[in-house]
């Protein structure tokens, strides 16, 4: 109830004003509290990003927050101002308000948007722009732009066209680079090879101090090994290990080396990537669930369905249905396509044989289907992009349901943490989109239970070995190791006794590397430092690990905070260079030295591509769009804006991106780009969704109402 309404009631009804006024007061108070909480959450996100930016220079120099100075504070203040301004600008633009607020003319009283550019400059530019538009050159450029826009939309208005464009644009990757991989692929091949030897009757060393099995490379504690010898583990997801390992084993049997199998795996992943990208592009750019012959322009209802001549010079060829008015325009299509065709994050991931790229492409595929379900959920309060067809509930077509199921299965088969993501998305979907509950149950919940449950049963029955729980303690390991290195005298004696059966503190201190927790937990095969006593540790020893960790960080909280921040700040510091970029998988010793014939195929070209990418990567500011943390930071800012704008249903299918940021923080390494791939791949689509929702929703007094938004009209 507004103030004017309340005042009218008080004048006419007398004693009846008390209850409405009290309700209005309570409503206003709750609204203010809610708005304050939403803005506080956005401020907290900006403060976290600013803090990571401020402490970045300290950890680049292996320093400590104890040395936090005025320069770091200035970096933090500047970063906070920029990030908060971005959030403010997003919110204001979404509410159709000027970014810099309003200004009032003192003489006329007219309110106009405040513009920081001087009026004289704007007047001069306006005159020059008007003169250019009326010139022959300007008119020719307008005609050329219109023609290009029409053809860009026409060449990307179907799924097969988009797949063809992406395939042609990325064809040079598998044909000139063949494949990209690292140590994980070789470990998976080794696991399967040892398992195959066991199945064929070859005796091999198992548990013993002088034996060294594939499970010792990660390593996996011996108490997790079953008594009956087995050599397959769930370290890199057992399904992916079986797929990669069996393919390479067949390659060795037929050709004598892994190389042909590696090339085949890279080609298959490239095809999967093309399919996932094309399907998601089609959903976000063309909105295929809106039937073209039913897309009515409500601004001109007399026009009926939107049709155009197949070819204007040949009217006898009839008419064709046009894209809906809300389909992406030519500029948006070009920007999104250029990201997938030029950004190294996407380009190199198409042939990188490690779990994260495959998970990222499947996640992107599912992200597009989530958007389709969001747009056809039937909630009349949801932004409908100007189309009443979208506010009508629509079940998933069988083909789309099968695609959703396939995307989720690929995610579950590629990354162990996928089941957390899918389960989290299922819970959110039950709150935000209950009308599609059958699709979520059979495409999200059932595959998660079957695949994750099947792997758990295989582990419990002794068929495969579980990944070591120590993998999830990366933050704790780094904190203990940093304290052991920087201030060993502060570790209490009781903590030392509890840690002794699990870790060698001297070796932890020597192996400590602030960017990566793998050395501390004795991962790897070269120069292995036995800081983690995986051969002798027992479950009883691990029971006291958390107690020892708490005692250690209480004794030196400053160094513990240093260890935490040094391990994760790079994911949120836009100026930090990636610890391991995607170009690493293109050119490293595993590819350029330890292969049979791949190392000779376009060796100079492979080296040039990797080195050029690294040089551009290291270019300040210009190299930022090539970094994964660039997209992580902007995604977090867009999420903060959506919280302020109360777009709860959109947040329901965007929150898994936030959960992925939590996965990054707990990952072993800092600023490891392959962990950021899902967020980077979905960022452009996130921007497009935010833009559409902003054009489809008019915010008045904090309440959202649907309006038609025909400004996002493709040139077709």
From TrEMBL:
Species, as recorded: Bifidobacterium erythrocebi
Keyword set, alphabetical order: Membrane, Transmembrane, Transmembrane helix
Protein name, per record: Sugar ABC transporter periplasmic protein
Residues covered by region (Disordered): 1-25
Lineage start: Bacteria, Bacillati, Actinomycetota, Actinomycetes, Bifidobacteriales
Transmembrane segments: 39-60, 66-91, 162-183, 237-254, 260-281, 330-351, 357-375, 439-459, 628-645, 652-669, 675-691
Region forming the signal peptide: none
């Amino acid at each position: 109830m507004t103030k004017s309404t309340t005042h009218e009631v008080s004048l006419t009804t007398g004693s009846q004003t008390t209850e409405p006024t009290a309700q209005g007061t309570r409503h206003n108070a709750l609204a203010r509290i809610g708005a304050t909480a939403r803005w506080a959450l956005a401020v907290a996100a900006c403060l976290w990003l600013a803090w990571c930016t401020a402490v970045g220079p300290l950890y680049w120099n292996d320093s400590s927050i104890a040395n936090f100075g005025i320069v770091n504070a200035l970096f933090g203040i500047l970063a906070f101002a920029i990030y908060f301004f971005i959030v403010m600008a997003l919110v204001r633009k979404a509410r159709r308000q000027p970014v810099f607020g309003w200004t009032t003319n003192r003489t006329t009283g007219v309110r106009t948007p405040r513009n920081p550019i001087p009026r004289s400059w704007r007047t001069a530019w306006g005159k020059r722009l008007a003169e250019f538009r009326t010139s022959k050159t300007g008119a020719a450029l307008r005609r050329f732009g219109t023609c290009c826009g029409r053809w860009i939309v026409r060449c990307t208005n179907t799924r097969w066209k988009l797949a063809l464009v992406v395939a042609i644009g990325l064809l040079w990757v598998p044909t000139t680079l063949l494949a990209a991989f690292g140590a994980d692929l070789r470990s998976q091949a080794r696991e399967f090879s040892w398992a195959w030897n066991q199945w064929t009757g070859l005796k091999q060393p198992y548990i013993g101090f002088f034996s060294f099995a594939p499970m010792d490379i990660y390593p996996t504690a011996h108490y997790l090994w079953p008594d009956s010898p087995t050599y397959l583990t769930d370290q890199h997801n057992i399904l992916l290990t079986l797929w990669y390992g069996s393919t390479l084993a067949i390659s060795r049997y037929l050709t004598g080396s892994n190389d042909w199998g590696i090339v085949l795996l890279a080609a298959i992943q490239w095809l999967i990537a093309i399919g996932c990208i094309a399907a998601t592009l089609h959903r976000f750019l063309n909105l295929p669930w809106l039937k073209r012959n039913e897309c009515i322009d409500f601004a001109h209802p007399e026009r009926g369905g939107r049709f155009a001549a197949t070819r204007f010079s040949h009217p006898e060829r009839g008419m064709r249905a046009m894209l809906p008015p809300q389909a992406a325009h030519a500029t948006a299509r070009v920007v999104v396509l250029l990201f997938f065709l030029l950004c190294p994050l996407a380009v190199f991931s198409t042939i990188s044989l490690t779990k994260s790229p495959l998970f990222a492409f499947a996640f992107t595929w599912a992200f597009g289907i989530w958007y389709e379900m969001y747009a056809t959920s039937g909630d009349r309060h949801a932004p409908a992009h100007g189309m009443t067809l979208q506010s009508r509930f629509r079940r998933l077509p069988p083909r789309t349901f099968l695609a959703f199921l396939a995307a989720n299965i690929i995610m579950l088969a590629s990354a162990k943490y996928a089941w957390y993501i899918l389960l989290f998305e299922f819970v959110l979907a039950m709150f935000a989109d209950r009308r599609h509950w059958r699709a979520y149950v059979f495409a999200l919940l059932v595959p998660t239970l079957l695949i994750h449950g099947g792997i758990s049963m295989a582990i419990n029955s002794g068929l495969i070995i579980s990944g070591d729980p120590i993998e999830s303690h990366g933050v704790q390991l780094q904190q203990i190791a940093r304290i052991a290195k920087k201030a060993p005298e502060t570790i209490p004696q009781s903590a030392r006794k509890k840690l002794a059966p699990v870790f060698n503190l001297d070796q932890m201190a020597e192996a400590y590397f602030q960017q990566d927790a793998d050395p501390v937990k004795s991962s790897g095969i070269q120069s292995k430092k036995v800081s983690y006593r995986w051969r002798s540790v027992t479950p009883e020893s691990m029971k006291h690990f958390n107690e020892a960790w708490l005692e250690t960080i209480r004794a030196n909280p400053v160094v513990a905070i240093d260890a935490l921040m040094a391990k994760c700040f790079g994911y949120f510091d836009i100026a930090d260079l990636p610890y391991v970029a995607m170009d690493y998988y293109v050119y490293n010793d595993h590819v350029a030295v330890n292969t049979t014939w791949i190392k000779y195929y376009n060796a100079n070209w492979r080296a040039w591509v990797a080195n050029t990418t690294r040089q551009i990567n290291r270019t300040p500011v210009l190299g930022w769009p090539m970094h994964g943390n660039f997209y992580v930071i902007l995604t977090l800012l867009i999420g903060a804006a959506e919280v302020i704008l109360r777009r709860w249903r959109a947040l329901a299918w965007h929150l898994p991106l936030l959960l992925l940021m939590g996965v990054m923080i707990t990952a072993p390494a800092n600023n490891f780009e392959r962990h950021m791939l899902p967020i980077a791949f979905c960022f452009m689509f996130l921007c497009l969704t935010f833009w559409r929702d902003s054009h489809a929703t008019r915010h008045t007094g904090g309440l959202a109402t649907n309006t038609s938004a025909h400004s996002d009209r493709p040139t077709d």
